[in-house]
Amino acid sequence: MRKNSIKNTRINTEVGHELSLIIREEIKDPRINPMTSVVAAEVAPDLKTCKAYISVLGDEESQKSTLEGLESAEGYIRKQLAQRINLRNTPEIKFYIDQSIEYGVNMSKLIDEVNANNKSEEN
Q1: Which residue among 1, 34, 50, 81 is the one 20 to 30 A from 13 at the CA level?
Q2: Could you give the strand order of the β-sheet that contains 92-97, starting from the edge strand earlier in sequence?
């Protein structure tokens, strides 16, 4: 199976969706921020590993504690994923913090500031 095959894309989408539901509805760990979302999931073509990119709304301490909570619940999440998705192998999940949303918000603020400065200079 090629990395960008239709089957792999479908599996990535389905795993990401199910991970999002499991994290939001089933995990009761107080370390996990309620504003946690799964941005993307990349399942290896051999279905052995999965990189799950998560976004956490909050400060760096909140992100760190959420990552710790998810890593400690990885076994439970994997078990739930196996029950929900019928795959040959249930992938081992590694969680990574995705900073792209936060980066985009910061860039948007910077662009707005530059535009506001240009307008004030024109007047």
Answers
A1: 34
A2: 36-43, 49-56, 92-97
Say whether pLDDT at 94 is over 90: yes
Q: CA nearest 59: which of 92, 88, 102, 23? A: 102
Q: Which residue has the tokens 């007047």?
A: 123
CATH code linked to domain 6-122: 3.30.300.20
The CA-based angle 19-73-69, given to 5 degrees, is 100
Ranges of each domain in the chain: 6-122
Of 121, 120, 100, 123, which is closest to residue 39 (Cα–Cα)?
A: 100
- What is the reported pTM? 0.78
pLDDT digits (tens, 9 = 90+) for 10-48: 999 999 999 999 999 999 889 998 889 999 999 999 999
Amino acid at residue number 99: Q
